């Protein structure tokens, strides 16, 4: 069954089965639709690495992150806290109110040790992988290029501000109380407060960098349309999908084929086919393969042998890759496709993940419409900028923060101007030494994250940005895993409105 939730669903429901009762017609009388096209510009250059060396320490990455965001923080602090002196940690004097810029380090007693990676109890390791490591007695330390100091909240506040404070910070960089549970290691921020004699730095307010401006903001009329979310017949859509998990236990090939047939225009009534023709590009945000261990070891399939040199086992392990290539070739023949690597896909593990190798796609790679993208992935389509990831960055932040709502976490990422603040502390990444590609110098119009528990969306950023500039309207999209939900998401390029399209292999009885 095909279920569409959105502005076109009412037209479909009025005549749901009428086309089945129509007289038999020849193929020449069938409705014909021409697929819409849109301009496309790949912006993945900052995430690509031609040559990589792992000889450097990660401390340089933290230093680069702090230096690159320091100027932005100073401008925001001058606007938010006029008259408050800004100093380094070494210059802080007791009983004198000052503002300090630095990087957060969060002390967590439940934070797993690297030794847990080698524990013999695999069941315990799997359980830890899905846990949240926050505790009531967690504490935070602020560190700059010279020293570090312990932060504490005033006794009256107790560090217990509500999670809705994330939305309050989005407007102008934020003027919030210290909330330890919402912070994660690696976030650059500014704190205002007073150092106690021989003790902690008592924080009265916290300032984040705030959402970055967009160099190409959408026209005012288009921003108003984003709020109204009214679709028109000539609108164009970007389709977002993730988590097909081919070869995994949760994969449903019939459901997957239904989705691919819809995207290529081979499924549904003329109403659905017209909607399919309006899709100008599909972006697969990771999670394509669901059997990475079998692929790496060559076992777990055909013959039941764990020998990596067993040709029958190797063939069974590689079958999901062949299926993926054939499915993507089918798609690329009908519309442009961007494929990003994910946590379980055959690509490098450290962020930013480089495009999956061309040898994995002997069929799909022959099409010019097929793009092997990085993770994170950034591109423009008809002037609308998209930025997204396959989910590792958001999933990792969720483990070390008390914020549960995935959209709140995405919004906080924009406010902190950083895609992956927990890298490299708990999320592996390349040890950059002179830059940090995860810093958001500009805000996208659409920020999407794949492989999430469920579909969710929100519009943010209509207030003032740092330095008094107008912050752009940003559409947040949490793209659910297709293997679990059977859902892809369509984003309207004109209005930024989005709605899910759901598929099911059941009869719906």
What does this structure look like?
Belongs to the DNA polymerase delta/II small subunit family. It is found in: Nucleus. Pfam families: DNA_pol_D_N, DNA_pol_E_B. The chain has 509 residues and is an alpha/beta fold. The chain folds into two domains: 59-207, OB fold (Dihydrolipoamide Acetyltransferase, E2P); 213-503, Purple Acid Phosphatase, chain A, domain 2 (4-Layer Sandwich), CATH 3.60.21. Helix content is 23%, strand content 20%. The chain has helices spanning 9-14, 59-80, 122-129, 165-169, 220-228, 253-263, 270-277, 292-297, 311-332, 392-399, 406-415, 482-485; strands at residues 2-4, 40-42, 86-87, 98-107, 139-143, 148-152, 188-195, 201-207, 237-241, 279-285, 337-340, 370-372, 377-381, 384-389, 446-452, 456-460, 474-480, 487-492, 498-503. The strands form three sheets. The chain has a seven-stranded mixed beta sheet with strand order 1-19-18-9-10-11-12. Strands 2-13-14-15-17-16 form a six-stranded mixed beta sheet. Strand 7 and strand 8 (201-207) form a beta hairpin. It is globular.
Topology:
Layout: E1 2-4, H1 9-14, E2 40-42, H2 59-80, E3 86-87, E4 98-107, H3 122-129, E5 139-143, E6 148-152, H4 165-169, E7 188-195, E8 201-207, H5 220-228, E9 237-241, H6 253-263, H7 270-277, E10 279-285, H8 292-297, H9 311-332, E11 337-340, E12 370-372, E13 377-381, E14 384-389, H10 392-399, H11 406-415, E15 446-452, E16 456-460, E17 474-480, H12 482-485, E18 487-492, E19 498-503
Parallel strand pairs: 3-4, 6-8, 9-10, 10-11, 11-12, 14-15, 15-17
Antiparallel strand pairs: 1-19, 2-13, 4-5, 4-7, 5-6, 7-8, 9-18, 13-14, 16-17, 18-19
